[in-house]
Amino acid sequence: MGEEVKENLKRQSTWVRGLYMLLFAIFYSVAEIVMFAIVIFQFIHKLIKGDTNARLMELGQSLATYIYQIIQYLTFNSNYQVYPFGAWPKGEPSELKKLEDS
Questions:
Q1: FRET pair for 3, CA 20 to 30 Å: which of 21, 57, 86, 90?
Q2: Which range of residues forms the domain containing residue 37?
Q3: HSE (CB half, 13 Å, CA atoms) of 41?
């Protein structure tokens, strides 16, 4: 192995990020299950009441943003550590808001 590869393997920050990535992958799996439950409950609410539940819509949006933030972190597109190490997201991701406004 080259010296550069050895140095990269010894870099503690990469290993720490790897542990965070593993943790966030677990959070992603849980969030996926919760999102599925929200979808089912919202559909049932629509069938029974005839309209959507605003609180479920808000929760679904923030959870979708959370899932998006996790994926951004896992794919190295962001260094922002999401909830529980950062704030819980509110609304759409800021990147999507910028695209919609233009």
A1: 21
A2: 13-101
A3: 13
Q: pTM of the prediction?
A: 0.81
Residue 7 lies in a domain: no
* Residues 54 and 42: beta-carbon distance below 8 Å: no
What secondary structure, in 3-state letters, does the chain show? Answer: CCHHHHHHHHCHHHHHHHHHHHHHHHHHHHHHHHHHHHHHHHHHHHHHHCCCCHHHHHHHHHHHHHHHHHHHHHCCCCCCCCCCCCCCCCCCCHHHHHHHHC
Q: Does 40 reside within a domain?
A: yes
In a domain, 85, yes or no: yes
Residue with the larger pLDDT of the pair 4 and 46: 46
The total domain count for the chain is 1
Residue 3 domain-assigned (yes or no): no
Give tens-digit pLDDT for 33-68: 999 999 999 999 999 999 999 999 999 999 999 999
